[in-house]
Amino acid sequence: MDKILAIVGPTGIGKSACSIELAKALDAQIISGDSMQVYRQMNIGTAKITPSEMQGIKHYLVGIQDYRDPYNVCIFQKKSKEAIDQIQKQGKLPIFCGGTGLYLKAALYDYTFEEEQKDEEYLRLLETKTNEELFQLLQNADPQAAEKIHPHNRKRLIRALEIAHGGITKTQREKEQEHKPLYDVYFLGLTMDRQKLHQRIDQRVDKMFEEGLVQEVTSLFADPKTWEYTSFQGIGYKEFKPYFEQKATLEEVKLAIQKHSRQYAKRQMTWFKHQMPVHWFEKDDPKLWESVREWYYG
Predict the structure, then answer these.
(1) pLDDT in tens, 168-221
(2) What is the pTM of this model?
């Protein structure tokens, strides 16, 4: 099987810098596994890697999408597989770097996302239902999916009902996939003391504000029509909504971004620990390099 290195871990821990060092050592190219760095105009709030930070290493899926256009795991899966092919054709090692777990799983495992024709009439019908009614419908249509979805998670309830309405339930679809890696993937996870990580995250948000985050967000999202964009839903952007509505100060916005970033880091660690066979290292641990070399050179 073809080898792929995936560098994972919580936001703000230093995955990008680590990926550059490993790419230089292993003659590799990097694919971003981040759901927000794809947007062209969004640089500060996404902590997007800069051209100088890339140090001449070719990167894929960074700044390829207009912020007004929707982006999702389906699009990412297609584009990431194209990137893998391009890198392998050059005889180089693909390195994924990012913390969006579902995106990485879609790229590296046997996940299939079928193109579906939306039944707009059925969706309009679902929108008229209460959460309780939606949950009852799902219990009837796909009881196993209902066990995994919170009765008040309206978005997921509607999505599961939409899938079941298409003739195959979410549960059936998942059973047909083995959820095995398609490559010889080495999942390298970066970890550190939680308090230190929280300090790094808070400092990074402070730096974003110093670098002009307020101006960036204002130029892109001051118009309420933009608040529905997929790109606005990311941490570092959505927190500005109450500021635009004159219901929060910039200091309150900053504190909210820091808090949500810390919470997201915790969710990322939990997700990776349960979903992938990650080899965890402190980012400055010399054993990290030894383990990657041993896997790569065998």
Answers:
(1) 665 666 665 557 899 999 999 999 999 999 999 999 999 999 999 999 999 999
(2) 0.79
What was the pLDDT predicted at 163?
A: 81
Tokens of 148: 């995994």
Task: Give 120-175's CATH code, choosing from 1.10.20, 2.60.120, 1.10.3470, 1.10.10.
Answer: 1.10.20
11 is in an annotated binding site: yes
In the chain, where the domains are located: 3-111+179-297, 120-175
13: annotated binding-site residue?
A: yes
Cβ–Cβ < 8 Å for 188, 283:
no
14 carries a ligand binding annotation: yes
CA distance 185 to 109: 10
Residue 9 in marked binding region: yes
Q: In what order do the strands lie in the sheet with 3-8?
A: 59-60, 28-32, 93-97, 3-8, 184-191, 278-282
Pick the CATH number of 3-111+179-297 from 3.40.30.10, 3.40.50.300, 3.10.450.50, 3.40.50.2000: 3.40.50.300
99 among annotated binding-site residues: no
**Is 10 labelled as part of a ligand binding site?**
yes
Give mean pLDDT, residues 76-84.
95
